[in-house]
Design a protein that fits this description.
Length: 353
């Protein structure tokens, strides 16, 4: 038994010097210390077959050998751990001084998204909630709920892409069975009123679609940012105040806004809002059609018919609404003189932001 112990010790020391990684360490552990078949474990088990004195003598020796091997094993385990950690660190090392790899250009936000995010932050800081609405909208919400009945000439103000559906659909609202690519974000007025009631402060950013002969300031697919407030004692000066905050936030304190009466069936009174043309500083150019002003929004006091359609008590509540052309805001902010470049996907343009 003494010889056996000597041999195990010798084999163990030979084997341990060969161990280079965690897998080999595990194999070593299995070979010598495994509970069922470990070489050292077997010796320990055999002790019980020895007579009293011999058991004492070899028991002591076996325990000393066991302790010694376990100590060496623990040291080796620590060594392997440290060296593998070093390997990991080496593999995962990041050279922060390395120049950018060619062809690995990262994307970034589109200027429209930058301005939209900025305005959402501004409005939520003033207690507005930001809502999304459907781009494929029912005629009911896009027109009828906004005081534009079927066959009314006001529909011509915003021609779009009509989609014919089979049969009616309740979700389109009020027995609607025809759908349009929404022409503006205003359909969310009635939707929000019906869902949340009054009082209400909402902004709705989103894409809208028009059948448009495009030019430097007109696109067929644009983004708008709708906003409306419904509460008690709301009047036109509240609307002017909010518009002023937005304009100054985007363009600084010197910006001038011009409001002029404009007919929108869903507001009364209605206005369009213009700012000094950024390109010609008001002198007149192709972007502002020689007028010196650029139209950036429509606005007004919400028409009682729209409030009624939204289920609002018009004796108690009034409201104002506005709709910014987000693309125009972006053009003004960054001095872009051609709206069609915004959605062109031209990287020479996009890389500038
Ligand atoms: C509307 O769309 C109304 N829904 C706005 C509104 C909301 C009025 C609430 C009253 C109350 P309008 O068609 O004027 O209005 O469009 C609003 C803004 O969107 C315009 O001032 C303009 O900045 C932008 N816009 C409209 N059509 C285009 C287009 N084809 N290309 C670029 N910008 C456009």
């Amino acid at each position: 038994m003494k010889n056996q112990l000597e041999k195990i010790k010798k084999d163990f020391f030979n084997a341990v010097t060969e161990v280079k990684d965690a897998l080999q360490l595990e194999e070593l552990e299995q070979r010598f210390f495994s509970r069922r078949s470990g070489e050292l474990t077997q010796i320990m088990k055999n002790l019980k077959d020895l007579s009293g004195e011999a058991r004492q003598e070899f028991g002591k020796l076996a325990n000393e050998v066991k302790r010694e091997l376990e100590e060496v094993f623990a040291k080796k385990k620590e060594e392997i751990k440290v060296s593998e950690m070093g390997d990991i660190l080496e593999r995962e090392k990041i050279d922060v001084t390395q120049p950018k790899l060619p062809g690995k250009e990262r994307g970034h936000l589109h200027p429209n998204t930058l301005v939209q995010n900025d305005l959402e932050d501004l409005f939520t800081s003033m207690g507005f909630m930001a809502l999304d609405g459907p781009e494929l909208e029912s005629e009911y919400y896009n027109f009828e709920a906004l005081n534009i009945p079927a066959d009314h000439p006001a529909r011509d103000m915003q021609d779009t892409f009509y989609i014919s559906a089979q049969g009616g659909s309740a979700s389109g609202g009020k027995n609607s069975n025809s759908w349009v690519m929404r022409t503006h974000t205003s359909p969310m007025q009635a939707r929000a009123m019906q869902k949340y009631g009054a009082p209400l402060r909402v902004v709705v950013p989103g894409r809208v679609f028009r059948n448009e002969a495009t030019d430097a300031r007109h696109e067929h697919t644009i983004q708008q940012l709708e906003g409306f407030v419904i509460d008690e004692n709301i009047n036109f000066s509240h609307l002017k105040g909010v518009l002023d905050v937005v304009a100054k936030h985007l363009y600084g304190d010197k910006i001038e806004i011009r409001l002029r009466p404009k007919f929108y069936p869903f507001v009364e009174p209605g206005v369009n809002g213009e700012v000094t043309c950024f390109l010609c500083a008001g002198k007149g150019c192709r972007v502002c059609k020689q007028s010196g002003w650029l139209e950036i929004f429509g606005a007004g006091m919400i028409h009682p018919n729209v409030l009624r359609e939204g289920g609002i008590d018009i004796k108690k509540y009034q409201g104002f609404a506005f709709g910014f052309g987000l693309d125009r805001l972006v053009m003004l902010k960054y001095g872009i003189d051609e709206i069609r470049i915004l959605k062109s996907g031209d990287l020479r343009f996009l890389r500038q932001f």
